Amino acid sequence: MPESIRVVVLAGATFSTGLVAGLFFAYACSVMPGLGATDDRTLIGAMQSINRKILNGWFLSVFLGGPLLVMVAVLGHLGVGGAVLGWLVVALICHSITFAVTMRSNVPLNDQLDAARSVDGTTDLAAIRRRFEGPWVRWNLVRAVSSGAAFACVIGALLAR
Question: Considering the entire predicted model, what is its pTM?
Answer without folding.
Answer: 0.93
